[in-house]
Structures are given as C-alpha cells and as structure tokens.
Design a protein that fits this description.
Belongs to the UDP-glucose/GDP-mannose dehydrogenase family. The protein is an alpha/beta fold. The chain has helices at about 35, 45-60, 75-80, 100-110, 130-135, 155-160, 170-175, 195-225, 230-240, 260-270, 275-290; strands at about 40-45, 60-65, 80-85, 115-120, 140-145, 165, 190-195. The chain has 2 domains: about 5-195, Rossmann fold; about 205-290, N-(1-d-carboxylethyl)-l-norvaline Dehydrogenase, domain 2 (Orthogonal Bundle), CATH 1.10.1040. Helices cover about 40% and strands about 10% of the residues. Helix 2 links the parallel strand 1 (about 40-45) and strand 2 (about 60-65). The termini are far apart. The structure holds nicotinamide-adenine-dinucleotide.
C-alpha cells in the first residue's frame, strides 16, 4: 500500500533502499533473522499509524495495516506476532481522553484469543493501561506512547529522542528489539522502561510542559504589547541563559522556588500586567508547594 504524505516525500516508496531519513542503517535487515521474520500489524492508519506502518515496512517482511475506515484486513491482524494500536483518542466532554477506540480494539483482540503482543501507541488516559490489563487478562498489553510531531511524522518516528515503554519485561524486550535501527538506541536514545502509570503520566506531562512554555511565551508577549516592548528582545534575555537548555528546573524534588529574586521579580511582572493568568497560577502553585513541603 502506498501512502500519500508530503513529509515522506519519495523516500519511503522503495522499501529496503538506503534512506536519508535514517541517521544510520537505512535499508538494512535486522541481523537476527528471527526478529525480521516477526509478523507485525498496525491498527489505525492515521498520522501515527502511517508512520509506524511505513517504517516497519522498510525493515520487516510482513506488516499488515488495518483501519476501521475499510483499509486492510482484520484477519491478518489476528495472525500477527505484535500489533501496534494507533487509533484516535479524542478529548471527551468531561475533558478526559476518550479511549473507547482503543478499548474496542482490545475487546476484539481479546474475543478472538489473540496471542501476540498488543502495543498501545495511542495516548491514553491515566490508569487506562492497568485497567485494560486487568479487564483483558488474556492479552499481553504493552504501553509505548508516541512522541512524533504530526508535521514530520515519519522523520520523528524513525529518529525518536527516547523509547518509553511499560508492561511485562519479556514483552517490553521483544518490542524494543524491533527498534534496532534507531541510532544509538539505549545510549544517546534512552530506553525508558517504567510502570504503566508512569509512562501514561510521562507522555501527558511532556505535552503539558510544551503547553506551559508556549503559554509563558504568550504571556510575556502580552506584557511586551502592553508596554510597546519588542518581544524578540525580551525573549533573547531568557534564551541566553545557560539554564534554559539544562534540566535544572525540570528535576523533581526541587521544591518551590524562592530566594531573593525569583519570587519578587515574578510578582513585579504580575502586578504590572493586565491579565497575568499563567504567572498568577505559577505563584499559587508555588505557595501550595511551599506549604506542602
Ligand atoms: N498525531 C500526532 O502527532 C500524535 C503524536 C503522538 C501521539 N498521538 C496519539 O496517537 C493516536 C493516534 O493519533 P493520530 O494522529 O494518528 O490519529 P488519526 O485521527 O490521524 O488516526 C486515527 C485512525 O484510527 C482509526 N480508527 C479509529 N477507531 C478505530 C478502530 N476501532 N479500529 C481501527 N481503526 C480505528 C481512524 O479511522 C483513523 O484512521 C492518538 O491517541 C493520538 O493522541 C498522535
């Protein structure tokens, strides 16, 4: 099957040819024949599923795709050794992710007595994976959240920054083995094995951090507009700090912020602005943290 996607350009049209998307190893077969013979399936062929399927097509002989919209064949999925569930999980009315599509797929796999590993790539709500593992006790469920960027889905899936995975150790190892092409996997690209709940919160926290940073930038931009300040100049003051590129403020057990300058300078900006929603929230978050500690 050929997928149309500008990001992929012509690179993925000819499987098993050297490919500039891969930092290394493009077009190679896995040295362990046993692994390259694994039958894989991808369920849900949207942005994520397309990237997963087309990348695996490049390295593995049998990669079947299935989508509820009519593409692919469900029977083939049932004959796979490992299936990747990439179905949509939209926001529901109460704000939680609606994981009913994932549940629907797991229910069908369970009812068919599927014996392969079910890798959930969809983003799921907190606690969903443990609940599903309990509910479908005949399935081997692994959670492996995806961090690709929609605009460059193939490039990001092929060259991830980390592999996050949770589930039974033997199943996690089998899944991780499939990603042998990733440059420096286990070294500069860490394999982060953890509990289901940690992988779920980790995935969400990654996006929440982006949300907070973007909102922070927007809030500073608002302050700049109020005072006719050039926002590029203002942000360049922040960009130049060595802590911006470090993990210094992203490590747990930091406690609340304090010291001579951060609290009073933040306050000054709050009281100088018309609508400092995020900074006020940061101040409140800090008050609660200091009380807690
Ligand atoms: N798009 C991204 O950049 C991105 C990045 C990381 C994670 N994710 C997560 O990955 C998941 C998939 O995202 P997407 O952007 O590929 O979604 P999408 O809407 O582009 O594609 C989802 C596909 O799943 C299919 N589908 C829905 N229910 C199904 C079912 N029961 N059986 C088979 N197929 C079914 C739909 O027909 C659709 O083709 C979501 O949970 C999303 O939050 C997305």
């Amino acid at each position: 099957m050929r997928f149309i996607n500008d990001d992929r350009k012509s690179i993925f049209r000819k499987p098993r040819r050297p490919c500039p998307f891969f930092r290394r190893g493009g077009g190679k077969k896995h040295p362990l024949t046993q692994v390259s013979k694994q039958k894989l399936a991808v369920i849900g062929l949207g942005s994520v599923g397309k990237a997963v399927k087309h990348t695996f097509d490049f390295f593995y002989d049998t990669v079947d795709g299935y989508d509820i919209d009519g593409r692919g064949n469900w029977e083939n999925v049932l004959h796979s050794d490992i299936s990747f569930i990439c179905v949509s999980t939209p926001e529901s009315e109460d704000g939680h992710l609606d994981c009913s599509n994932v549940d629907n797929v797991l229910c069908r796999l369970s009812a068919s007595g599927y014996s392969g590993i079910c890798v959930i790539k969809s983003t799921v709500s907190v606690g969903f994976t443990d609940a599903s593992t309990k509910k479908y006790s005949n399935l081997r469920i692994v959670y492996m959240p995806e961090f690709l960027r929609e605009k460059s889905n193939f490039t990001w899936f092929v060259n991830p920054d980390r592999l996050v995975i949770s589930g039974e150790i033997a199943d996690m190892d089998k899944v991780i083995e499939l990603f042998w092409w990733v440059d420096d996997v286990g070294e500069s690209v860490p394999i982060l094995k953890m509990k289901n709940i940690e992988a779920e919160i980790g995935k969400l926290a990654h996006n929440a951090r982006i949300a907070v940073l973007v909102s922070f930038t927007n809030e500073i931009e608002s302050a700049c507009m109020e005072y006719e300040a050039d926002s590029d100049n203002v942000m360049s003051v922040i960009h130049a700090d060595r802590r911006v590129n470090s993990k210094e403020h992203l490590k747990p057990k930091l406690g609340g912020y304090g010291g001579k300058c951060v609290p009073k300078d933040t306050k000054e900006l709050i009281v100088s602005m018309k609508n400092p929603i995020l900074l006020t929230a940061a101040e409140e978050r800090n008050r609660i943290t200091l009380e807690r500690d």
